[in-house]
Amino acid sequence: MPKNSATPPRGGFASNQRKPDTKALRRLLSYIVGGYKVQFALVILCILVSSLTGVAGSMFLRTVIDSYIKPLLLDANPVFTGLLHAIFTMACVYAVGLAASYAFTRIMVVISQGVLKTIRDDMFVHMQTLPIRYFDTHTHGDVMSHYTNDTDTLRQMIAMSLPQLLSSVVTVVAVLGAMLILSPILTGFVLVSVACMLTVSRKIVRQSGKYFVRQQTSLADVNGYVEEMMQGQKVVKVFCHEAATKAEFEVKSGELCENATQANRFANMLMPIMGNLGNLLYVLVAVVGGALALGGIGGITLGAIASFLQLTKNFTMPINQVAQQFNFIVMALAGAGRIFQLMDEEPEQDTGDVTLVRAKEENGVLTETKVRTKQWAWKRVTPTGAEYIRLCGDVRLIDVDFGYVPEKPVLHDVSLYAKPGQKIAFVGATGAGKTTITNLINRFYDVNSGQILYDGVDVKDIRKADLRRSLGMVLQETNLFTGTVMENIRYGKLDATDADVIAAAKLANAHDFITRLPQGYDTLLSGDGGGLSQGQRQLLSIARAAVADPPVMILDEATSSIDTRTEEIVQRGMDSLMQGRTVFVIAHRLSTVQNAKAIMVLEQGRIVERGDHDALLEQKGRYYRLYTGSFAEDA
Questions:
Q1: What are phi and psi of 375, to 5 degrees?
Q2: Beta bridge partners of 554
Q3: Pairwise CA distance, residues 183 & 179, whole Å
């Protein structure tokens, strides 16, 4: 998040407040069908086989009773060969159904895990394209919940709910056909009864679905708060803020508890209600079927009644299962909606056509080369051919206005220039706009009006990746990654050799402490370098910038976390690092910028004073008060 400037507004996903729609389901199905056509076709085939074997078993009851059992009861010398043969045949049919059920369950596990991997990969790849503004306006916990909670709800849906839904639809259709064959009258009675059951279930599902959506939103809120408190635990303890954070967490946790309780209350009452309504229907079908059989209506036999009762169970059971799974589907679609909202976020726009290329000079003419020459040039393609501009590090801001939101400007009419090799310092109170200027040079944000020229080229015309490759940054807040010391320094230039890394560490005066680590440059760092001191972590950050060897450096309070003695050592390394480079320095310690070519004093987004150290002291203005005040405080 930008420091020393107005804070960009924070917000959540708009989808948090929306009910999931069919668009999320269609998009999710496109991942399943698009990536696993053959496997999904096999799943549907296995579901068809499994459902039809269940219907065949129910229909078999009529055959067993009417064609085998009733005749055998009247036969003085019954022969059971035919009955045993029929039973064996149905056992084989059931075995096929069991194998089909096992097969589609195993295949769906493979599909679900594959789809989740694809979604996570797509989400992470797209996240890398998002502008800094997105991360400044969304909590890390909220973003992380997409990869954890939201993705886990999709696993439940794809692996269990979706095949259950398909199986239920096929079963209902097949059973309905079989019921019509046995007795259209009883089928009509069952359909009317099921319509009443669905009316009841729809009201319950509507309530539970609403709270499942709220549950996902509350869960993301809780995760975001927990992560924020974990990162700021030292601050919490230093200011004895435990009671306040506990109270705030209890509020957020209470909202999650309430939404989850309401969601599961309605979900848990659904199955008992639907199950008992199904049992009541079973009894009513037996009574009505018996009355029809006794009255000789519809030609219903005892075997037909037995089969129809079994089919009734098979008809209501899938409906109950769909009603139960619908809660998971609603929750999954809420998660899918949040995931797709992130994936639909507008990526960082880059319309630049000027690229950074290696160059060589022959007879005063710059040309492009693949060989490392330590010379770089900006390449602009024109109708008449390629034009090359030497990369020197000349940076100019011309009448720049900017605000993170249009109605709250942060910078007002800022103009400055930095010639190649010059050191420009920004000083001023917190919120004056110092870091904002460096964010604009990097094009983390674009100016509202005015221009930023880099070697005479508008930065908006330079491809962002090439622009940032030409800039080195050392931030006040260091970020180290899980890996060796060597890998963390090489992060600044991935093709750097071991010798390049060691040379950069020496330049930053980090080599001595690195060699004292247990495995030297091969020492594994984890937890953002938790085993190192703040000063050591900052030295690695400086070495990372040094290995990139950029023509322009931005130092944002680069030595603020280092003690005075270490600062003297680091400053010598920094002076070597800055030699021959254009450097922008943001500093609160004014002693570190006395040798700057020009010092820009900012106040409320405006440059109120500019000049070198001695000239500004002579003016006895804002810089003089800052300088003398800081030394008075040090005294």
A1: -120, 140
A2: 473, 584
A3: 6
The answer to the question of residue 414 being in a domain is: yes
68 & 118 share domain? yes
Asked whether the beta carbons of 16 and 143 are under 8 A apart, the reply is no
Q: Which helix (H) or strand (E) holds 599?
A: strand 598-603
Alpha-carbon distance of 564 to 529, in angstroms, equals: 22
Per-state percent for the chain, helix, strand, coil, to nearest 5: 60, 15, 25
Q: What is the pLDDT of residues 391-442, one digit of tens each?
A: 888 899 999 999 888 778 889 999 988 888 888 888 887 778 888 888 899 8
Q: Report the SS3 class of residue 394.
A: coil
Query: Tokens 């619908």 belong to which residue?
Result: 326
Q: Are residues 482 and 372 in the same domain?
A: no
Distance of CA 200 to the CA centre of its chain: 38
Helices (H), 295-357: 302-343
pLDDT in tens, 239-249: 677 787 888 88
pLDDT of 235: 65
Question: Cβ(115)–Cβ(194) under 8 Å?
Answer: no
- At 119, the amino acid letter reads I
Type of residue at 269: M
Same domain, residue pair 280 and 380? no
State the total domains in the chain.
3
User: Which residues on neighbouring strands pair with residue 29, listed in sequence order?
Assistant: none
Average pLDDT of the residues in 205-227: 75
Q: Comparing C-alpha atoms, which of 392, 354, 466, 427 is closest to residue 601? A: 427
Identify whether residues 171 and 316 lie together within a single domain: yes
| Domain assignment of residue 129, given as a range | 21-343
**Cβ proximity of 216 and 150 under 8 Å:** yes
In whole angstroms, how far apart are CA 137 and each of 7, 117, 356? 9, 27, 31
Is residue 3 in a domain?
no
348 falls within a domain: no
Rg, the chain, Cα only: 36
Question: How far is residue 505's CA from residue 32's CA, in Å, rounded to a whole number?
Answer: 49
437 contacts 426 by C-beta, under 8 angstroms: yes
Separation of alpha carbons 534 and 460, rounded Å: 36
In this prediction, residue 317 has a pLDDT band, given cuts at 50, 70 and 90, of confident
Distances in whole angstroms, Cα of residue 394 to Cα of each of 199, 454, 535: 73, 6, 31
Residue 53 near residue 94, CB atoms below 8 Å: yes
Neighbours of 346 (CB within 10 A): 10
Can you tell me the distance from the alpha carbon of 124 to that of 122, in angstroms, rounded to the nearest whole number?
Answer: 6
Rounded CA-CA distance 358/212 in Å is 56
User: Same structural domain for residues 323 and 375?
Assistant: no
Opening angle at CA 200, ends 199 and 203, nearest 5: 90
When mean pLDDT is compared over 80-89, 149-158, 351-360, the highest value belongs to 351-360
Residue 538 belongs to a domain: yes
Q: Whole-prediction pTM value?
A: 0.69
Do 336 and 206 lie in one domain? The reply is: yes
